[in-house]
């Protein structure tokens, strides 16, 4: 069955395209979700009138993706992971973790499904992943995987010391460890 897509459908096509799909797929998935309409002569004429609006929206999406690509390009993200013996991670770094790190460290929203990892990341080190921001807009992102033990930075560790906070500890873990130190016999 030929249908006109009303929205981008992954692995099928983009808004405004006329595609051939299975009848059941169209009736049971595309039509109920208003992702497509049946391709009739009247629908084709209406599509021709909507083409300019579709092209304008697509141009805006592409421009936004290029702007986001420029913002992300060259900036790396750091993933802090649990590390076992030999520098191997417990599990692996996922696309979700990378997308969250991009949002937190760079301030750009990237969907986890758009992050493409070339191979499993199971060791501490530096890697390069790519993100598909739009149809033809991709960006390479350096990913630094570090151990939890190596994670505290110089300014972060200085802020947690009792001298820097006026004798008080800033985190509950530090407070519990100092309480244990005081209660243990010397």
Molecular structure report:
The chain has 186 residues and is of the alpha+beta class. It folds into 2 domains: 63 residues, 3-Layer(aba) Sandwich (Ribosomal Protein L9, domain 1); 79 residues, Roll (Ribosomal Protein L9, domain 2). It contains 5 helices and 9 strands; from the N terminus they run E-E-H-E-H-E-E-H-E-E-E-E-H-H. A 4-stranded mixed β-sheet has the order 4-9-8-6. A 3-stranded antiparallel β-sheet has the order 2-1-3, covered by helices on one side. It has a two-stranded antiparallel ribbon with strand order 5-7. The longest helix has 32 residues. The chain is elongated, with a radius of gyration of 25 Å. The C terminus is likely disordered.
């Amino acid at each position: 069955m030929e249908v006109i897509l009303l929205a981008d459908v992954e692995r099928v096509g983009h808004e405004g395209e006329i595609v051939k799909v299975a009848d059941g797929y169209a009736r049971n998935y595309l039509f109920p979700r208003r992702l497509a309409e049946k391709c009739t002569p009247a629908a084709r004429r209406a599509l021709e009138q909507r083409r300019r609006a579709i092209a304008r929206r697509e141009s805006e999406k592409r421009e936004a993706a290029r702007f986001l690509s420029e913002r992300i390009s060259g900036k790396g993200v750091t993933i802090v992971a649990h590390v076992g013996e030999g520098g191997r991670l417990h599990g692996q770094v996922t696309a979700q973790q990378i997308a969250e790190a991009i949002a937190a460290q760079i301030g750009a929203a990237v969907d986890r499904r758009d992050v493409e990892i070339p191979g499993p990341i199971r060791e501490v080190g530096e890697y390069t992943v790519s993100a598909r921001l739009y149809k033809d807009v991709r960006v390479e992102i350096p990913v630094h995987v570090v151990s939890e033990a190596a994670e505290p930075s110089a300014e972060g560790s200085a802020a947690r010391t009792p001298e820097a906070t006026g004798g008080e500890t800033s985190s509950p873990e530090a407070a519990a460890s100092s309480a244990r130190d005081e209660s243990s016999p010397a």
